Amino acid sequence: MPQDSPLEAAPAPARVGLFVTCLVDTMRPSVGFAAVKLLEDAGCRVEAPRAQTCCGQPAYNSGDRADTQALARQTVKAFEDFDYVVAPSGSCAAMIREHYPALLADDPAWSARAEQVAARTYELVSFLTDVRGVNAVEARFAGTVTYHDSCSGLRELGIQAQPRQLLATVQGLKLSEMQDSDVCCGFGGTFCVKYPEISNTMVGDKIDCIAKSGARTLLAGDLGCLMNMAGKLKRTGASVETRHVAEVLAGMTDSPAIGEAAKD
Questions:
Q1: Cβ neighbour number for residue 126 with a 10 Å cutoff
Q2: Could you say which DSSP state residue 11 is in?
């Protein structure tokens, strides 16, 4: 009797350490919960180590190498036992993946450990598509969205096609690309504090591009960028809501949009 054709083997379960990020933890926990759902749907076992703090990027951008190295060591120690480290942020993932090895290269006790953690660190959507092989999600979102490519994710990690691939499978969603989607929104971590006038001009240009797209919802993969753009949208009176892409991909959009207060 002929045997049935073997089914394609699913990826083995992976133990993932979720790097929540400072902004998600303090400003938008729903993004963390959406990340957990997406990772679990992809067959991962997810934990968020309590010992995690900041990735060190603000200190790094400000030239404070000593404090950045201390934060890097703490992060490496908290996450080195996981199969993967995943962050719902291109900037935090890039900090760990691209900069930790150089930061700790001269420290014999930490150099190899930093290299190993860096090699296993990914941004959320990139991890889902490029590592776990996720090519579709089961989610609904009625409306037209536009997508902003955050600088670190795009330029340091090559994240551009991955979110669009998954968004194309969300039922009811239409993607309207904005002009200059890959141009900086002006946040840049401490850049917006050091150069507020330049930052304000840059985010103003971004808001114009969002408006011309005709979309009613703005998506991105970095909360810092989203908060910066949401603030400008609100100040200009634009009727565009702002959400992290993970919330839409996970079908978890019941919470108010970024920058909006909860309704009674």
A1: 21
A2: P
Q: What is the CA radius of gyration of the chain?
A: 19
Domain-wise residue ranges, the chain: 14-129, 136-249
The H or E element that residue 122 is part of is strand 121-123
Rounded to whole angstroms, the Cα distance separating 231 from 114 reads 36
Query: Which tokens belong to 210?
Result: 């969002």
Asked if 110 and 73 count as a contact pair (C-beta separation under 8 A), the reply is yes
Provide the whole-model pTM.
Answer: 0.92
Q: Do domains 14-129 and 136-249 have the same CATH topology?
A: yes
Please identify which residue in the block is written with the tokens 């400072």: 22
| Closest-CA residue to 221 (of 164, 179, 172) | 164
Helix (H) or strand (E) holding 114: helix 111-119
The predicted structure's pLDDT at residue 191: 81
Is the domain spanning 136-249 CATH 1.20.1730.10? The answer is no
Structure tokens at 263: 């309704």
Q: What is the mean pLDDT of the chain?
A: 93
Q: DSSP letters along 228-262, please?
A: HHHHHHHHTT---EEEEHHHHHTT---SPPTT-PP
Class at the top of the CATH hierarchy for domain 14-129:
alpha beta
- Measured CA to CA, the distance from residue 73 to residue 32 in angstroms comes to 23
With cut-offs at 50, 70 and 90, classify the pLDDT of residue 9: low
Which position has the token pair 């290299």?
A: 115
Q: Is residue 242 a contact partner of residue 258, using CB atoms and an 8 Å limit?
A: yes
The phi, psi pair for 158, rounded to 5°, reads: 70, 35
